[in-house]
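Long-time lurker. I teach an intro course on protein structure, and each term I like to show students one example going from raw sequence to a predicted 3D structure in token notation. This year I'd like something fresh instead of my usual example. Would anyone be willing to generate the tokens for the chain below so I can use it in lecture? Attribution to the forum is fine with me.
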Amino acid sequence: MYEQHGLRFVEWLNGMFAFAIWDPHKPRLFCARDHFGIKPFFYYQGHSIGTSVTDRAHTFLFASEIKAILGCIEAPCPINETRIAEFLVSDDCDRAHTIYQGILRLQPGHWLSVTSEGMRSAPYWKLQPQPEQNLSSDQEYADAFLMHFTEAVRCRLRSTTAIGSHLSGGLDSSAVTCMARQLLKVESGPGRLHTFSNVFDQVPECDER
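-- Reply from a regular --
Happy to contribute to a lecture. Here you go:
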């Protein structure tokens, strides 16, 4: 898809993802993160590894966890006290910065292009709550919702390990769990879907069994 559509191919992706593609012909490193930022993507550019000043200046590191980047940086990474203060005061803060100076987070629904000329990032998707879908009956609305809901669960069942579901006492997780169980039964035959619930013997008002 990248070879056929270029940077715009992320507009057609569905599900949870975070990835990087190296294009030797540009040359360019192309990175992207899923629409809601379910999968993590951290990156760092600057002085870290390398033997010469030129090498260090052109170092770009990325990983799914910050500790992997810290393991490649020679000098201690300063704490970002401003970011910590924002986190303690309000949830409405800059999500691109982390608690370490120089280590950034690729924002949800964004792609990042890295070349010898520098970095460029832009959104490929943004939630648009205004548009409405006008159908002719309640049944058509129910059918359309079921179609989208089924596909949303289906594309998140791809895994190299056993599938599990966080099951609470509410309608949301119950609906997801039931749909996942139904899809797994149809596509992979009889099998168990493991669920995990918050159980508190001493705090009955929070118990979800």
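Some talking points for your students: The first strand starts at residue 18 and ends at 23. The radius of gyration is 22 Å.
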